[in-house]
Specification:
This protein is of the alpha/beta class. It has seven helices and seven strands, in the order E-H-E-H-E-H-E-H-E-H-H-E-H-E. The protein has a seven-stranded parallel beta sheet, with helices on both faces. Helix 1 runs parallel beside helix 2, helix 3 runs parallel beside helix 4 and helix 4 runs parallel beside helix 6. The N and C termini lie far apart (42 Å). The chain binds NADP nicotinamide-adenine-dinucleotide phosphate.
């Protein structure tokens, strides 16, 4: 039996890299993707040092051809897929009345269309891997956001794209979980990464959720049996406004 294999998008930094490191340490071989080649190469070297076989595949999740090439590259390298982590995501803030539509389109392309396309392209491999491991199945983990579950002023387009991911995970479970393919949307409030730097003037990064917390949740999902379906995990910061990101 070959080692388990995982594909992680957005793995060059932040939450995606933290999850990829934990997967590598737990014995998974990896395909990792991001747009920036240098940062991705550096991440791949860190992951390989943890003992994993690592295939680094620069790809832009806004480009359908890149998404399909990524799926093929993973299948060619490993022939199985035990864990798919969708961490690549983009977010821009702006009120509904003035936020430009091209930003809406970009967020939906990267945050929703790419994950849907990736799952569609990888489904035969996901199903075959699940069938070979019926007790365990395979796991799809998508980084949604607290804003997908609870509204946040100024983040309507981002929140809508993340709500779509929650819905996608529920639908995937309705269609696929009986075959051992289960999906979870992790929905955190602000996590201390590059993406949340824009709110440092009002939220101290030390008070944000840690990438290690999100990675811990992701790893716990990978250890569940195929009998347990968790469609979403909502993670808030402490305090009186639990449903504000
Ligand atoms: N940080 C938060 O507060 C927070 C909270 C809730 C949910 N999330 C979600 O968690 C996920 C990870 O966020 P993060 O905080 O780790 O972000 P991050 O630190 O900005 O990292 C984003 C990763 O995605 C890659 N990426 C961005 N656009 C891409 C594209 N078009 N194609 C391929 N890769 C792309 C980036 O690499 P390149 O730039 O080189 O492509 C990087 O590896 C995102 O989906 C985000 O929406 C974040």
């Amino acid at each position: 039996m070959s080692r388990p294999a995982a594909l992680v998008t957005g793995a060059s930094r932040g939450i995606g890299l933290a999850i990829a490191e934990r997967l590598a340490a737990a014995g998974h071989d990896l395909t990792v993707c991001a747009r920036g080649g240098d940062a991705l190469s550096a991440a791949a070297a860190r992951l390989a040092a943890l003992g994993a076989a690592v295939r680094a595949e620069p790809a832009d999740m806004a480009a359908e051809d890149d998404v399909r090439r990524l799926a093929r590259a993973h299948e060619d390298a490993y022939g199985r897929l035990d864990v798919l982590v969708v961490a690549a995501g983009v977010g821009t803030a702006g009120p509904v009345d003035t936020a430009p539509l091209h930003r809406f389109d970009k967020q939906f392309a990267v945050n929703v269309r790419a994950p849907y396309t990736l799952v569609q392209a990888l489904l035969p491999t996901l199903r075959a891997t699940a069938a070979a491991r019926p007790d365990h199945g395979v796991k799809i983990i998508m980084l949604s956001s607290l804003t997908g579950a609870f509204p946040e002023p100024g983040l309507a387009a981002y929140g809508a794209s993340k709500a779509a991911l929650i819905s996608l995970c529920r639908s995937l479970n309705a269609e696929l979980s009986a075959d051992g393919v289960t999906a979870t949307a992790i929905c955190p409030g602000y996590v201390d990464t590059d993406m949340s730097a824009w709110v440092h003037d009002r939220i101290d990064p030390a008070d944000m959720i840690r990438t290690a917390d999100v990675a811990e949740l992701a790893m716990s999902l990978t250890r569940l049996s195929s009998r347990a379906v968790v469609s979403e995990l909502v993670v808030t910061r402490p305090g009186g406004q639990l449903h504000r990101a």
